[in-house]
Amino acid sequence: MSANMVALAYLVASVFFILALKGLSSPESARRGNLFGILGMTIAVATTMTLTENWALIVGCIAIGAVIGTIIAKRVQMTAMPELVAFMHSLVGLAAVFIAIAAINNPVSFGLPEVLPAGSKLELFLGTFIGAMTWSGSVIAFLKLSGRMSGTPIVFTGQHMLNLVLAIVMIGFGLWFFFSETTNWTAFIVMTAIAFLLGFLIIIPIGGADMPVVISMLNSYSGWAAAGIGFSLGNPMLIIAGSLVGSSGAILSYIMCKAMNRPFLSVILGGFGSDGGTVVATDSTQKTYRSGSAEDAAFLMGNADSVIIIPGYGLAVARAQHAVKELAELLHKKGVNVRFAIHPVAGRMPGHMNVLLAEAEIPYEQVLEMEEINSDFANTDVVLVLGANDVVNPAANVPGSPIYGMPILDAYRARTVMVVKRSMGVGYAGLDNDLFYMDKTMMIFGDAKKVVENMVKAL
């Protein structure tokens, strides 16, 4: 293909990527958005293939990756989607590092001068350290989200100072690499090693409550790493795709922080959090709560005019979304107005609950975001909370609380609240929930799927 044809093909692919992001902004158009993304990537890969003669190696690698990806996609549970996303982010970061190493080792094969110009060195430096931090940080996020590593923040004295010193040293070696007249492998390797270490140290002090922000932040990092390498290789497609991922991830991080009332820097510098159930408020033993059965809950919902269901991570763990759909359909047949309320950080990744409800084919018009439905709770007969904790905790309205100011779903304003949980354990923020002890609240203990199935039988 001529240079003009390649540029045109990359432009078309870029347009498809932008349309993909637009489609993914809404559940109704998400399937179309995914299709646009697939078309754009197909065009980008096919175009890139015309620029090389080494077809066998590239096609072989694509085939291996496709097989591995297909196997993982078929086996992964919906509850494991957050850690899968973190794992994929790590691969993008590692790919950026490998490309930079290859470009420095043999710049001519990448269309670069044999002696790397200063601009290329700077771009490779930026792409490498961002990619390295993305890889190690994503690995820690994967370990925490998958339960292989405790979600409790790992902190130690002088942690922030150590991170600052390492960052300064990393930049120093990067500048040494940048100003060296020849390829300075020592400076590059040390800089890369410190970047890997920094990614690890930045994520370990972040607790489970802040993991949704970490997911979107690492998504942004992976995009910027790809864009940096794209500049080095003079590949406009890589620059555009990386910039789209980087900017959308940054916007999503902002949305997540706003939804948690958390400054972005405070999250990165080590936020609150614990692995739920290990921290209990000191006065929790002095409180009393009212418990009931699935049959009691079914009776109350069956005689209500309006019901709002709030899904949380407990629903995901129990894989109860299909049972919940059956419950909602039965209530609709009884004339009950049923809707679902989604908090931006419910679950362990942005959009986690939306994905689960979409998998169960729950109509999109019944699924409402926090801003759309919060004003309706005061006029709602029954709220059914399924495994959610921090996102419905009224402590967010109490000055001095660790989550003070965090926007929550106002479930406590409803006439009756029913909470399905395995126990009275706390959520990721490590805080007891006053909602559970209100006179209007009935606790129903058990696995969410089994409890909901019993509600369906009772109805």
Explained architecture:
The structure is a single chain. With 459 residues, the chain is an alpha/beta fold. Helices cover 56% and strands 7% of the residues. The protein has 16 helices and six strands. The chain has helices spanning 3-23, 30-49, 55-75, 81-105, 118-145, 159-179, 185-203, 211-233, 236-260, 264-268, 294-302, 313-318, 321-333, 352-359, 370-373, 448-458; strands spanning 306-311, 337-342, 367-369, 382-386, 416-421, 441-445. Strands 3-2-1-4-5-6 form a six-stranded parallel sheet. Helix 8 (211-233) packs antiparallel against helix 9 (236-260). The longest helix has 28 residues, at 118-145. It is globular and about 75 Å long. The model is unreliable at 271-284 (pLDDT under 50).
